[in-house]
Structure formats: C-alpha cells, structure tokens
Amino acid sequence: xxxxxxxxxxxxxxxxxxxxxxxxxxxxxxxxxxxxxxxxxxxxxxxxxxxxxxxxxxxxxxxxxxxxxxxxxxxxxxxxxxxxxxxxxxxxxxxxxxxxxxxxxxxxxxxxxxxxxxxxxxxxxxxxxxxxxxxxxxxxxxxxxxxxxxxxxxxxxxxxxxxxxxxxxxxxxxxxxxxxxxxxxxxxxxxxxxxxxxxxxxxxxxxxxxxxxxxxxxxxxxxxxxxxxxxxxxxxxxxxxxxxxxxxxxxxxxxxxxxxxxxxxxxxxxxxxxxxxxxxxxxxxxxxxxxxxxxxxxxxxxxxxxxxxxxxxxxxxxxxxxxxxxxxxxxxxxxxxxxxxxxxxxxxxxxxxxxxxxxxxxxxxxxxxxxxxxxxxxxxxxxxx
Length: 385
Ligand SMILES: Cc1cc2nc3c(=O)[nH]c(=O)nc-3n(C[C@H](O)[C@H](O)[C@H](O)COP(=O)(O)OP(=O)(O)OC[C@H]3O[C@@H](n4cnc5c(N)ncnc54)[C@H](O)[C@@H]3O)c2cc1C
Prior knowledge:
By secondary structure, the chain is of the alpha+beta class. It has twelve helices and ten strands. The protein has a four-stranded mixed β-sheet.
C-alpha cells in the first residue's frame, strides 16, 4: 500500500508481474537473437488478461479503469529483461490507440479498437518519415480524396511493430505542403493493396522489437477510417504523444531502478583490494545519488499521472519528465556498466543489453532537444518576438 496504490492495484501488479515472468522473460534471449518477437502470439495473451485496454471503455472489451492501473502495468513491463517487447506493447496501448479511443466513432471503435484491446490485431503508430522525424510538420505522405476514399502515397520510417502490424494509425497530409495544418490521422489496414514493408531495420538495441520502413503506393482506404475531423491530425497526434511520452517515462523509471539494484547486488559480491566494491564510498554514494534521481523522476511521473487522471493538460510536465528520463537512463546505464567492470561489457550479463536499449529514450517519441523546445514554449520563453 502506498499513497498512490491500494490493495487492488497491488493485486493487479502481481498479475502483470507473473505475465512478464512467464510470457516474456523466458523468451527474451531467443527473441532478441531473432530480432523480432511473435506479436500475434503474445498480444492475445496480454489481451486475455485485460492488459491492452486498461483505460478503454468496457463496451469495446476494455476495463474502464484509470491511468493509475496503466501506470502499474507500465512499471511491471519496465522491469522485463529487455526494453523491446515492453515498447512494442506500449505502442499498442499508449501510442497507436489513444486518439482512436478518444476521438473515434462507435463504428471505428467496434472495428479497430476492439481487436486492439483483445490483442487479435497488432497496431503501429506511423508518424516519422525518412525526411521528417523531429519536425512532424514536414511529413510528406499524402492522402488524396477520391470519391469516398483516400488514396495514400509516401513512406514512413522507424515504425515499431511495422513488419507485423494489421493496422497503422497513420499521420498523413490531406492538404497543403508543409506545416501543422492539413494533416489527418487515418487507420490503414496493412492488407490493403499498395502497402508494403520496404525494409526491416537493424538497430543498436531493442533487438526483439521490429522496426520498419513502410511504403504506400496508391493505398486506397475509406474516408470513414479517418479519426476526427479532416485537418485535425497534427493536434490529435500531439495529444496522443503525451501518453506515448509518459508511458516511456514510467517504464524506464522502473527499468532504471531494477538495473541499479542489480548493480548493488553485484557490487556487494564482487571483491577488489580485499573488500566488496560497494564498500567504496565513491560507489555507494554514486549509487545513492542515482536512486535519489530515479525517485525524483518517479514522483514527477506520478504528478503527471495525477494531472492526466484529473483531465488536465500534461504537455509541459510530460515533456520535462521525458527529457529527464532520457538523460537519466543514459547516466544510469553508463554508471552501472562501469561498476560491473568487464562483466558489464559481455552479453552473459544483462548490463550490455540495458546499455544499448536505454539509449533510445533520448531519441524516440521526440528527442531531448524537441522536449526542450516544448518546455520553452510552455514557459513563455519562445517565441521571443
Ligand atoms: C527504435 C526506434 C523506434 C521508433 N518507433 C517509431 C514509431 O513506432 N513510430 C514513429 O512514427 N516513429 C518512431 N521512431 C522515430 C522517432 O520518433 C524519431 O527517430 C525521432 O523523432 C527523431 O527523428 P529523426 O530520427 O528523424 O531525427 P532528426 O529529426 O533528423 O534529428 C536528429 C537529431 O537532431 C537534433 N535536433 C532535431 N531537431 C532539433 C532542433 N530543432 N533543435 C536542436 N536539435 C535538434 C536531435 O538531437 C535529434 O536527435 C522510432 C525511432 C527509433 C530509433
């Protein structure tokens, strides 16, 4: 029991922990090596336990609970033995479906949200492009109106779950050439003619998660697949990004704590100069400093959750938390690897994977510098003229 979590949350936490221990961790080595995990096997299991629709309406198979339960799930996913699979699950729950759940029509939710919650359909969020990552307003993938349909042409890059997805939540330009006006969010079934996976990317880390370049060549989807009014896509995506960023913060905070505690155990056992490593003041002071930073980040994350649950705008605080999480994860990874010595550098130990995986947080879901730009705007520092 704590200020934020009651007995029901804790029972739910145990259930998610068992899911991670039984359905994810035993397979991590194999899935990391294979550079992909079987989303179509894992997601229905997660769906059957109610993990993919915690905050979504019961009418569509969700649990209708608040974001504190989602927080519990994300914390437990963040403790898994890799970051790739937790990220892939969070794409389904917190990145590709929030706008659909909030702004979709009843028919869209029946058709797309229900299978996402059940885990019988795999989702991707398709925003970034080869020439537009940080600058979302520069996307060029177009969806042109033709009768009752959109005809989509272009390319998306870095798309998580991209080789396995049944549906993409696609941000496309429906008018104009540049700028945040004239974009729309459209659900694209990947079995539509003209869609293809151009390439599966080899990455530094998050090896178990597939990341792809996607191609659209006259892909025809009904206009009825558009979420919300035409031209509102950028705004809906900016709203949706808040959950994407917050989910990354919550998962990474739990992951950081796990790796620090693992390092404490290692430094207790490892002897140098006739005493355990942990007895060196530099080492236990540094570890305590990191634990303090992680706790401060967790409290900022909980503040964001409380704000979100109250229905208030969380953009500035979530951006601050995402910035801090990315930087702290890098420091935790580097320091903990250092305290493992050579054992931090070999694949038999989890440190090397953590070091690789942790690097993504400062880039994905908006780079550190993009978070700083958002904070500057919300603080009234920009525009200066
Ligand atoms: C493993 C992985 C998974 C991903 N999954 C998805 C996904 O599922 N869906 C999706 O849509 N995208 C996804 N992305 C894309 C991700 O969001 C982008 O990589 C990110 O937004 C950065 O864009 P970019 O790579 O094009 O970098 P760029 O935009 O080229 O920026 C490069 C660097 O320049 C700096 N920079 C950029 N702009 C500024 C500025 N204004 N001021 C100062 N510095 C700046 C930053 O340091 C940035 O890292 C994923 C990326 C990775 C690596």
